[in-house]
Design a protein that fits this description.
This protein has 200 residues and is α/β, with parallel strands linked by helices. The chain is built from 4 helices and 14 strands. It has a single domain, classed as 2,3-Dihydroxybiphenyl 1,2-Dioxygenase, domain 1 (Roll). This is VOC domain-containing protein.
């Protein structure tokens, strides 16, 4: 299941505010402050730490089956998309990635696969990555990604071993997540990083 995307952005507070207004809930905030990584999770809000000049490594928001993360960057930069898979699917996808010559980077909680399209694919097997109790309330229907390389749909179909990958591509010199169509949105809107969020 396509459930996730991640950005680096200079608009960290604005991005959090945008998604909260779309009905998302903040689940974690981790950032570097005074040389050390610290947590600033809810119930803390921006009024509690705005003046501390925190370099946020990750802020995670969830709504139903949608999980979005973002961290501080010099400019909006699309990093990766994520699929929630079973352990068997995970292992099969990693095998295909190796056969395709794509690097896999397994971690304790997730695996990243490098692609020639200048973004990564995350494989997540832990169901707590989504709001399980409201999994049908909001979910990603499909995405549109721009990339200078041709053949994204074909390669992702090969990697995932399925035809319905829910991702379309457009050719552009910049790699960017252009559009995300979601169930559970009340209106079309554009996030602070230029991602068009469309209701399904």
């Amino acid at each position: 299941m396509l459930f996730h995307y991640h950005f680096w952005t200079p608009y960290v507070e604005e991005t959090e505010k945008f998604y909260i207004e779309q009905g998302f809930t903040v689940h974690q905030r981790i950032g570097r402050h005074e040389g050390e990584f610290q947590s600033f999770h809810p119930p803390l809000d921006w009024e509690d730490f705005r003046e501390k000049q925190i370099a946020f490594r990750i802020i995670e928001v969830k709504k139903g089956s949608v999980n979005i993360t973002f961290g501080l960057g010099k400019k909006p930069m699309f990093d990766h998309i994520g699929f929630l898979v079973s352990q068997q699917q995970h292992d099969e996808i990693c095998t295909r990635a190796e056969e395709m010559g794509w690097k896999t980077d397994p971690g304790e909680r997730r695996t990243f696969i490098g692609t020639p399209f200048e973004f990564r694919v995350e494989l997540q097997t832990h169901r707590d990555a989504i709001d399980e109790g409201n999994a049908d309330f909001a979910r990603i229907d499909h995405m549109k990604i721009s990339t200078p390389e041709f053949g994204l749909e074909e390669k992702l179909t090969q990697l995932l071993g399925r035809e319905d990958i829910k991702i379309a591509s457009v050719t552009d010199e910049d790699v960017m997540l252009k559009e995300v169509t979601m169930w559970g949105m009340s209106e079309d809107s554009t996030d602070p990083n230029g991602v068009l969020i469309l209701q399904r």
